[in-house]
Amino acid sequence: MTLLSLLDRATHASPDHAAVRCRERSLSYAQLQAQVNRLANTLLRLGVRKGDRVAFCMAKDLESIVALYGIMKAGAAYVPLDPLAPPSRSAQVCKDASVRVLITKAANLARTGAAFNGVPLQGIIGVEGFKGFSGSVVSWLEVEAESEACGESPVPGDYDLAYVLYTSGSTGVPKGISHTHESCIAFVEWAVQEFEVSGLDRLANHAPFHFDLSTFDVFAAAAAAATLVIVPETDSRFPAQVARLIEAAGITVWYSVPFALMQILERGSLHERDFSALRLVLFAGEVFPTPSLRQLMMRLPHARFANLYGPTETNVCTYYRLDVPPEAVDLPIPIGVACPFAQLCVVDDADQ
What we know:
Helix content: 25-40%
Shape: globular
Low-confidence stretches: none
Radius of gyration: 20 Å
């Protein structure tokens, strides 16, 4: 099993079911698979080979989902860049990861283009041209003209690299964290089973793709042949807009950092919203203040809550279910017990 296997299985089982939605646009699993094949064929034509790293830098939309799957379909590992980060940081990440091809859009390249002049890329996909660039440039129209039949793409194995996520690191220098297909699959398959994710679910994608929380949204949706609903960056800045999206899209599964949930609680006018479809709320990445969590759980008495914990290096490794709102005391929420695919050790200052 690889992350591509999840998409293949969902496409075979539910070809006409909505795979991903963003605003008024959507792709069925069959349509997503066809676009993934076109991009993979384009990457192979540009010389991308198994084990290469390919970056993508664009606002969250349907094409960004096509990009990450298409990169893996070509046998490469995807490196998501933060489109809002300083261009110098994006260029540094590409150099450090030895990125061979960049997938982007004209609006993003206009902002970051100068920084990439010093990056030894062999190709750029998604724009009409790039002044001073000697490599191959392929537009989105050319990608769409590619064959949608699966080409002679290399088949990744369990232990092949799937993606590289860059954190700031304790020194402020970007640090690449590599994950294989197997390491992500272990988490995703457990989460789908533990939280009973099914094809009827609509999973919100709130986290940016360079943040490890996004791997649950994207791949758990595929594992269950469910629908991924993208929360655009422009919407995620406004809690009221996010609350409207949760209601209008009928979101059933939400996963984010606690701060986003606190903002929705405080500014989302929950008393005016119908969140009856929301059955599962997961949070991770930081401490959720107990009083705020209690308020939110009392606002959403029908939803199940769980605290997930783990550094980027391990993805999630512990979890703690909350069946009832915590007591009205300011005690921290536990990180819980080990996930069945992880081993934990409790050590002292001497690592004993």
